[in-house]
Amino acid sequence: MNEQNYLFIDFEFTMPENKKKPFGFYPEIIEVGLVAVVDSKIADTFSSFIKPEKFTILTERCKKFLNIDQDDIEDGLCFHQFIDTLRGYEQSESSTVITWGNMDMKVLRKNCEINGLLYPFKGKHRDLALEYKRFFGDRNQTGLWKAIEAYGKKGTGKHHRALDDALTTYSIFNLVEKDKQYLIKPAPTTIGEVIDLSKLLKKVRAH
Length: 207
What we know:
Elements: E1 5-13, E2 29-38, E3 41-49, H1 60-66, H2 70-74, H3 79-88, E4 96-99, H4 103-114, E5 125-127, H5 128-136, H6 144-150, H7 162-183, H8 191-194, H9 197-206
Parallel strand pairs: 1-4, 4-5
Antiparallel strand pairs: 1-2, 2-3
């Protein structure tokens, strides 16, 4: 049986100061949190800041919202080192990448394209927020920490810290997968399992 390889990933991005974006602005990844899971066990975790390539100075809004400083990203990985690191987490068989929402992979693809680098993953991507919405029949998409609180649990660490959010995504994944198992209907019971046919046959022959 093949191993199940999952990569639970969360990114944090740069933000414009206000709704009026600077000319040519696009979000850049500035923090990564990754949880590598093999056969239902955490095999590794990774966390790092990343230097933005285009808009190198963080806005005050971004620093306040994410609670990070300019010095944090100055000491981070450059983008190509970051992509090499992600690529290194691919196993001999492609891993399934799981994120809360679709924005993380959209921004990753865009950042790779702009920097002339190949997208680092070969496996499929699962949007757990969309799966959660469909599973519970919600009209709107639920935020990550609201989703975990709906289970009566708490998120890991601090919201909007990449590794903490990746770990929280992993926690919700386990809870949802467990709930899915309850919905799997057991195979219908056969009459042979209800009645011992050999004993019944003996009774019939006796008469």
